[in-house]
Amino acid sequence: MSLNNSSNIFLDSVPSNTNRFQVNVINENHESCAAANDNTDPPHYEETSFGDEAQKRLRISFRPGNQECYDNFLQSGETAKTDASFHAYDSHTNTYYLQTFGHNTMDAVPKIEYYRNTGSISGPKANRPSLLEIHEQLAKNVAVAPNAADRVANGDGIPGDEQAENKEDDQAGVVKFGWVKGVLVRCMLNIWGVMLFIRLSWIVGEAGIGLGVLIILLSTMVTSITGLSTSAIATNGFVRGGGAYYLISRSLGPEFGGSIGLIFAFANAVAVAMYVVGFAETVVDLLKESDSMMVDPTNDIRIIGSITVVILLGISVAGMEWEAKAQVILLIILLIAIANFFIGTVIPSNNEKKSRGFFNYQASIFAENFGPRFTKGEGFFSVFAIFFPAATGILAGANISGDLEDPQDAIPRGTMLAIFITTVAYLGVAICVGACVVRDATGNVNDTIISGMNCNGSAACGLGYDFSRCRHEPCQYGLMNNFQVMSMVSGFGPLITAGIFSATLSSALASLVSAPKVFQALCKDNIYKALQFFAKGYGKNNEPLRGYILTFLIAMAFILIAELNTIAPIISNFFLASYALINFSCFHASYAKSPGWRPAYGIYNMWVSLFGAVLCCAVMFVINWWAAVITYVIEFFLYIYVTYKKPEVNWGSSTQALSYVSALDNALELTTVEDHVKNFRPQCIVLTGGPMTRPALLDITHAFTKNSGLCICCEVFVGPRKLCVKEMNSGMGKKQAWLIKNKIKAFYAAVAADCFRDGVRSLLQASGLGRMKPNTLVIGYKKNWRKAPLTEIENYVGIIHDAFDFEIGVAIVRISQGFDISQVLQVQEELERLEQERLALEATIKDNECEEGSGGIRALFKKASKLNITKTTPKNDGSINTIQSMHVGEFNQKLVEASTQFKKKQEKGTIDVWWLFDDGGLTLLIPYILTLRKKWKDCKLRIYVGGKINRIEEEKIAMASLLSKFRIKFADIHIIGDINIKPSKESWKVFEEMIEPYRLHESCKDLTTAEKLKRETPWKITDAELEAVKEKSYRQVRLNELLQEHSRAANLIVLSLPVARKGSISDLLYMAWLEILTKNLPPVLLVRGNHKNVLTFYS
């Protein structure tokens, strides 16, 4: 429903109910409907009331005479048109205003449509006005699209009318269930399964009344804790189809959800077999009594079971509505059967029943049956394993969560009430049957007490019957021997048989519905791509017919086992694994302390949930340790598989929340510990711009920060702040996603600034968190410095000065081809776009080949226009001209290859470290870290240091000793004794020619002219400056000669970065130093630490 601010409207909340949040929409139009109806009431203003009622739904009522106004307000579900008294568009900007609380504003009042997910089945999603639309100046910055009034009035982002109507039509025939029919009935039927009628008496006989009650209570404790956890998770947001899988996956993430989803769906499929086998056993017993066996008991169970599961499949495929009707009928039969049993316990027993061990309520029988009497091979936990599947039906309602009207209300209420009712029934039956029936009976009415016989405390003997021969030979009756005890005890035996049929068939039917529903939800999430085939649904209720067939095949396979006691422990382990994860999900979500964890169902405790998870795991191993091991191996394998595949989903799991909390706690804990040199690691800010535009720079940095240090890819947006911020915000997610996709362990950060240097300065000061702050700035060498504007050079050198001011080390990387491949990327994007448009056009033409006449041509142009196959207007004429002039085969291949050179495994060679100045050891540490990487492990370190010619050997020994103390392996050490000699005339001439365009030559001019030139061009290199640092200039040129001589064949050169003293070295002279120093060499990494120790030889 969409509300428009049309005239003549007054809406009011229901005055009689003050327990709701009420907002009255007020119209300020003077020509209101109230006036038209002679309503003299004074104007009403906004009224609000607050209450604690749980369900706060909007109600609309009308003041006298306003019903007609409301009818005019909503015409056929559409917003009414505004009249001339209220203009939908501002007279200056054509910007649409909504009228909120009686004032012209674009601000929207809170409503549920803004909080729905895209594609929500509960209603359309609307987009509230963005902060930009509200914050920016309307006259200049808010562009209004065509039909903006209708768009805003109806909620931006709401699907079109046609689409909305189609959704309503689709929902019209969908069957939804309330908490009774959808959850309570299903859970009770599934819990009251085969165990109630044909195994509970045997369990009491084996374990006794005391331990039997304990088994029931232990099972109930497991299921009750799980029910509480399920209720908490189910009420923490909207629940869709998928039951346990949906709850676990949305809480713990796809890794846990995907692994347990398969196991849980499989467990439900096997449970179908278990219940059907129970039904078949009862039928076979009836056939035995009437001597109508078909083959033999085992094969008869298989035959009857197969026929039964086919019939159940037919009911399920017919649709949920038919299945629900069948469940209600089966519950009525089941309740009558249970009541029939309790009535039968008080009907006086006859001789035939007494001979079979039934004596009505007797204290002696109760006392005799209170303690356990396990037969050979049985024990407490083996009996518990047989009974526990009777409690596994608690998720029958949750498993069809997608078919419930209100899962958040239905699942907690129906599940917990079903657990309570069924537990009371189990306890009542166990105690009653234990107080009425002896463990062993012969069934012979003549086995009465002979006078003078010693009873030895036997309850049956005290009641006049001698069943002592059952100690030496097997008997057919009694709790221990007869699975049909409840039929014998009941008032009317056939009703118990009907109850057995009802219980087993209803449980089988519930499991047959649950398994495909859970499996379909798992497949829809596309966690296992190979199973996508089973995601398809059919009909109004999206029935998983393919899942039904798969469940049928699994059930048939296990029916062939035909042994209930063999199937039950397997089911126990699978369901216990599911319950353990549900409990752990509740604990984990609570422990993560995410603000999004706000379950409406508050009767839970995180530690109780954890205890329930541990209890489930312990019970699994006690019941059947090898089955538990197999279950967890399968779950672990599936977990690893899903983790490896990394499905592209984000459900806001508690794992994410806990990761955040752990990261925050660890970051805070780091701040309490002083930095130590042994724990130093390079933590780098890399000025890559967009990370994809300078991949080589990022790769070399990532090589020595991966898994050891912080790496932040930084970009500075320079220009008008508004445009920069918009561009920056729109690209943040895309660029971080690029890093993740390319498996680069780095962060992306960006700032908008008036100039490049200011942006970098902000990054240097504000990046990082606590101790995880950058200590090294990595930048690419400015290759085009001689052609660049002076401001760019000043900014480039300035950021180096700023880094040193902030005591941050600097690393400058130079490769022959440069780093920036943005032009290549632009060409590739353009070609990809053109290729996509070509394919789209071909598809459109193909679709219209069958159409004839002008209609087909019109359709073609219509579809082509929708595809927007037009020439894109370029933002920059120069760049687009470059694109249009370039051919695919004319890409700068050398640039592309250079951009990937650090991704490849480096050939066997050397990393030459020219450690000329002691900067604390960073110049040595970085290349050492590189040699630890797989791609650089074949490169050996060669160390070059300066020294005196007459002390080369001594200094070589001293350096080797220092490196050995640092525990840094090296291939060779070279002492360079001739660094400070003058370079060759040819090399010096190259340097002079390089700086010639930037020299002032003030010594050749008169003093006045020289002073004037200094004022006009302060950036130029003066003769005085050049003379003052002539020795340093000689050193840079000479070093290049030495590098050419010794390291021309190295894979990488790591070299001490010369420092330009502020105020003494001009920017252009410093750039000339860097240029001549690294000219015509392999990749060079210039490094200068912050002159604090990063290496130590102390332990």
Automatic annotation (TrEMBL):
Q: Keywords assigned by UniProt?
A: Cell membrane, Chloride, Coiled coil, Glycoprotein, Ion transport, Membrane, Phosphoprotein, Potassium, Potassium transport, Sodium, Sodium transport, Symport, Transmembrane, Transmembrane helix, Transport
> Is Transmembrane helix among the key words of this record?
yes
* Gene3D superfamilies from the UniProt entry: Amino acid/polyamine transporter I
Could you tell me which residue ranges the SLC12A transporter C-terminal domain spans? 694-1099
Task: List each coiled-coil range.
Answer: 824-851
Query: Catalysed reaction per UniProt?
Result: K(+)(out) + 2 chloride(out) + Na(+)(out) = K(+)(in) + 2 chloride(in) + Na(+)(in)
Domain (Amino acid permease/ SLC12A) spans 182-685
Where in the numbering of this chain does the Amino acid permease N-terminal domain appear?
90-157
Q: Drop me one GO molecular function for this one.
A: sodium:potassium:chloride symporter activity
Q: How does it sit in the membrane?
A: Multi-pass membrane protein
Q: Which InterPro entries match?
A: AA-permease/SLC12A_dom, AA_permease_N, SLC12_C, Slc12a1, SLC12A1/SLC12A2, SLC12A_fam
Segments crossing the lipid bilayer: 191-218, 260-280, 301-320, 326-347, 379-398, 418-438, 545-564, 570-591, 603-627
- GO biological process, any: cell volume homeostasis
Any one annotated GO CC term: apical plasma membrane
Q: Which family does it belong to?
A: Belongs to the SLC12A transporter family.
Question: Which NCBIfam families does the entry link to?
Answer: 2a30 (TIGR00930)
Q: Specify the protein name.
A: Solute carrier family 12 member 1
Q: Which organism is it from?
A: Callithrix jacchus (White-tufted-ear marmoset)
Lineage per the UniProt record: Eukaryota, Metazoa, Chordata, Craniata, Vertebrata
Gene name, per UniProt, is SLC12A1
